Amino acid sequence: MDTFFDPRQTAHAPRQELQNGAFVPYAEKPERLDAILSVLPTPLAPTDHGDGPLRAVHTSAYLDFLQSISAQWKAEGRDGDALPYVFPVNAPMHEDFDRVEARLGRFCYDMGTPITPQSWESAYWSAQTALSALSHLSRGDDEHVFALCRPPGHHAGASYCGGYCFLNNAAISAQAALNAGADRVAILDVDYHHGNGTQDIFYERADVLVASLHADPRTDYPFYWGRADETGKARGAGTTLNLPLPQGTRIDAYMAALETALSTIEAFRADTLIVSFGADTYENDPISHFKFHMDDYSRLSAAISRLSIPTLIVMEGGYAVDAIGGIVSGFLDGFAS
C-alpha cells in the first residue's frame, strides 16, 4: 500500500495546550509522524491541488481566518501561540468581529488547539496529502492508499477548528471524490473521539454516509456530539450512524459494533470509502480509554477491507508516540491479509 506524506506537516508545533485547568505539553506533536515514518516504506510526495477543494468544504471566512490569525495575534502584541479565551455562546454573530480575541472565539471551539505561525502551512499540506492519495486511488493504482495526515482533521467543521484539527481532510477528500464523479461516499471514523466536524459537514447530505465508532460523549471529548440518536437531518436523515462505546471497551465488543457499521456502509453502496483512522484506541494512549492491544489493529482493518470498496485511509489521532508506529503498521497490514 502506498503512503503519501509531506514534511511541511511537521512545522506546526505548539508548545502547550490548556487541559483540565492547566497548561500541559501539546499532545499532537510532530514526533508522532517520525514514529510512523520509521516503520513505513518511503512515502510519495503530494502534489498541490490548490485551495479549491478546501473551499468546497470550509467557508471562505474561516479559511481566511486560519491564514491570517497568527500574524494578527503578533501584530496586536500577543506572545506565544494564538489561543481563544472567550466564546460567543448564544450571542449574535457579526461579520465585524475584528479584534483578535473575538475572531479566535468565533472560529475555535476549545482551548486545546493553539495556532502557530506554521499552522496554516502544515494544515494545508495535510489536506493536500489526503487529496493526492485520493487521486492515486481514483486512478486505480491501488485498492487502498494511506494519507499520513498531520494535523488531523475530523474535529474541524466547515467554519471552526478544535481538537487539534484545522482542515477536515476526510471531508475534503469525500467532497473531492463526489466532484470527480462518485455518486456516494462513505466515511468510517474509527478514532477514539467522535469526529464532530465530519458529522456537521455532512449532516444534511444524502450522498455521504458518516459512520463513527467512538467513546461515549457523556464521558469523553467532544461531549456535545456523537450520541446514537444523531442520525442526520433533512435530506441527510439516516446517513449518520453513531455507535458510542464505554470507556474500557476491548476489541471483541468493538468488532460487534463495527459489523453494524460495515453492514450499513455495504447497504449504502458507496463508490469510495474513507477511513478516519485514530491510533488512540490503544490501551496505553495517554488521553484515551479503550483497551486495544497492538495485535488488534490488523483484525480491525481486515474486517474493513472485506467491503472491497476502494479505500482512502486518513490519519487522525493517536498519542502514544512509542507505540504509534507499530499500531499504524499493523492496521495497514490488515488490508493486505
Task: Describe this entry's structure for a reader.
This protein is an alpha/beta fold. The chain has one domain (2-49, 122-334): Arginase, Chain A (3-Layer(aba) Sandwich), CATH 3.40.800.20. The chain is 34% helix and 13% strand. It contains ten helices and nine strands. The chain has helices at 31-37, 52-55, 60-75, 100-107, 119-138, 169-179, 196-202, 251-268, 297-305, 321-334, and strands at residues 2-4, 16-19, 22-25, 144-147, 185-189, 208-215, 240-245, 272-277, 311-315. The strands form two sheets. A seven-stranded parallel β-sheet has the order 1-4-9-8-5-6-7, sandwiched between helices. A two-stranded antiparallel sheet has the order 2-3. Helix 9 links the parallel strand 8 and strand 9. The radius of gyration is 18 Å and the shape is globular.
Identify the overall geometry. Answer: globular
The first-level CATH class is given as Alpha Beta
CATH homologous superfamily designation = Histone deacetylase domain
The profile of the biggest β sheet is:
7 strands, parallel
- How would you spell out the order of helices and strands? EEEHHHHHEHEHEEHEHEH
First CA to last CA: what distance? 12 Å
Number of strands: 9
Rg computed from alpha carbons, rounded to a whole number of angstroms: 18 Å
Give the class from helix and strand content and strand pairing.
alpha/beta
